[in-house]
Specification:
Helices cover about 40% and strands about 20% of the residues. With about 180 residues, the chain is an alpha/beta fold. The structure holds adenosine-5-diphosphoribose. Adenosine-5-diphosphoribose binds near residues 38, 39, 123 and 128.
Length: about 180
């Protein structure tokens, strides 16, 4: 299953590069110091240009604890906003990773909602450098987003997960079907 409706809204799964997917808000998998990095963080800053980091430099002092998110402009990306969300590092499970991962998605959706974003794109937060097993992360991510779409969403009409490789895509496809 690659897309599913939730209360008149929907989740779609796409395989590709999130920096090439137009959206109202693109979510970045950032770190708590908002310092940029590799992975999708590096791709977003490379494609979006220096204005994104310049804006982060101005708000860095407020910090961005794990499970939270901040929003900036999108520079040269095909979007109005970038939402920098900080997911948890995988520490073997049972150390609050699940709650923090769900919180990173929810914090992002609430910022997108405030900004009036209709379409929000997500990478698979925490399943790269942060080592969260994707087969464990996918149900948590899809569960948090689908619950938001059913219970809280007003402006947000579609959440797209843009998954970088076939393995990750397949894990989310299985999890979406099992929701
Ligand atoms: N588009 C979509 N997905 C991507 C892209 C891209 N251009 N590049 C990487 N990904 C995927 C990875 O394959 C992985 O599935 O995004 C997912 C998240 O991986 P990371 O980017 O490594 O993010 P994360 O695991 O959350 O680690 C965050 O990495 O880059 C640093 O600054 C970042 O410290 C932070 C940490």
């Amino acid at each position: 299953m690659t897309e599913r409706g939730f209360g008149g809204r929907r989740i779609r799964l796409v395989q590709g590069d999130i920096t090439r997917c137009p959206a109202d808000a693109i979510v970045n998998a950032a770190n708590s110091s908002l310092a940029g990095g590799g992975g999708v963080d590096g791709a977003i800053h490379d494609a979006g240009g220096p204005s994104i980091m310049e804006e982060l430099d101005r708000i860095r002092g407020q910090g961005c604890p794990t499970g939270s998110a901040v929003m900036t402009g999108a520079g040269d990306l095909p979007a109005k906003h970038v939402i920098h969300a900080v997911g948890p590092r995988w520490r073997g499970g049972g150390k609050g990773e699940e709650q923090l991962l769900a919180s990173a998605y929810l914090s992002s959706l609430r910022l997108a909602e405030k900004a009036g974003a209709a379409v929000v794109t997500f990478p698979s937060i925490s399943t790269g450098i942060y080592g969260y097993p994707v087969e464990k992360a996918a149900p948590v991510a899809l569960g948090a987003v689908s619950e938001f779409l059913k219970a809280e969403a007003k402006a947000v009409r579609e959440a797209q997960f843009v998954l970088f490789d076939r393995f990750t895509f397949a894990a989310y496809e299985a999890a979406l079907g099992a929701l």
